[in-house]
Amino acid sequence: MANDAVPRSGEVVDLDPQLKSWAAKPGPELRVIDHGFVHARQFVTDAELAASGGTGLRPSGIGLGRGASAAVEKVASSLMVVDPMTWVVATQDNGGAGFVNSAPHGRRGQLTLCESPFVLLQGDDIRVIREKGGLLLAARASRARVTVITSQGSFFALASRIHFRAGSAEVVLEGNPTIQSGHQHIKGMKPDALMKLNFHTATVTVSGAVSETRY
What we know:
By secondary structure, the chain is mostly beta strands. It is built from four helices and twelve strands, in the order αβαβααββββββββββ.
């Protein structure tokens, strides 16, 4: 279940020790499918957001109430420390991935997409579409990162935009997408490649040719 709750400013949140230990482990080997089918119809478009009254998330640090994901702020900051490869990818001139730390700490929106595995979407701007009852239907993050924490370890993806639709176990990466899991680095051969990451099956589908390296 998606949840955008964050701790109130100055509020102490205890991060689950098991989740923290999983986040510190290198991610699993991801299955990669090149020249796969990733359709642009999976995008959450400007027109769709406008028609559905899509709203933006307030930046972290503003009290939005407690929820199952009340520790997301601490998880997010911990990931930047325990995953050193984040800094390698974020500072490379690899088509724009360096934006991962562009926003000051505490000002990037963040949204929990799934609790098992734990999936955290972050971005300078996150737009969401909800049902009248508040249930999340879709989300789109700009200058974005998505982090997945499993019992096997954690991995993350960067893209200009990341799209998510409720009811699926996938995010779609648009614009210079790159994925890092342990020592496995995956990106499209062309900057306009699209990627689809299934966080339940740990599978990456790329619309064209793939560049896959190991550090």
